[in-house]
Amino acid sequence: MATDNRSTLGRIVSAGGRFANRHGIYAGRLSTAWHNRIYRWSKGKLGGHMPGHPGARILLLDHVGAKSGTRRTSPVIYVDHNGAVAVAASKAGQPTHPAWFHNLLANPDTTIRLGDQIRPVRARVANPTERAQLWPRFVAATPDFEFYEQHAGDRIIPVVILEPR
Predict the structure, then answer these.
(1) Closest C-alpha to 13, from 138, 137, 149, 144
(2) Does the N terminus or the C terminus of the chain have fewer Cβ atoms within 10 A?
(3) Rounded to an integer, what is the distance from CA 65 to the centroid of its chain?
(4) Euclidean distance between CA atoms 140 and 55, whole angstroms
(5) 115-155, pLDDT tens digit by residue?
(6) pTM confidence score
(7) Residue 68 CA to its chain's centroid (Å)
(8) What CA–CA distance (Å, rounded) separates 156 from 152?
(9) How far apart are CA 57 and CA 114, in angstroms?
């Protein structure tokens, strides 16, 4: 019975996200700030996965603004990858890459928070072979990634590997 509820919740969450994306609605920094606070407070027990999609696990990604130098934190869905983690720069299928992607290109040494653990990592963009292997794992975590890929049009959604340092 619980699986059915999560599946229904997952469909509702996904439908809401797709509606927002199609209509240019962005919850913005306020929702991110609340997500980050709740995640940290609960040590990832709340905010540690996408509602209704238990396989869509979330980490907190620290990054430094490429131009501003401002330190920021973004919640992102991740998959495990050979002792590292991988994140997709989907921006929910928008036509441009998320700011955190540009920030990681400029400042690849950073930290991530997985639950109550903070890990130092170095970011690098997955090569085409790695991306081809990892992308189906993101889609398996939540079919929303299929929508993001279609919605992105000509933009290839990069996958970033965060390797321990």
Answers:
(1) 144
(2) N
(3) 17
(4) 8
(5) 999 999 999 999 999 999 999 999 999 888 998 899 899 99
(6) 0.82
(7) 22
(8) 7
(9) 9
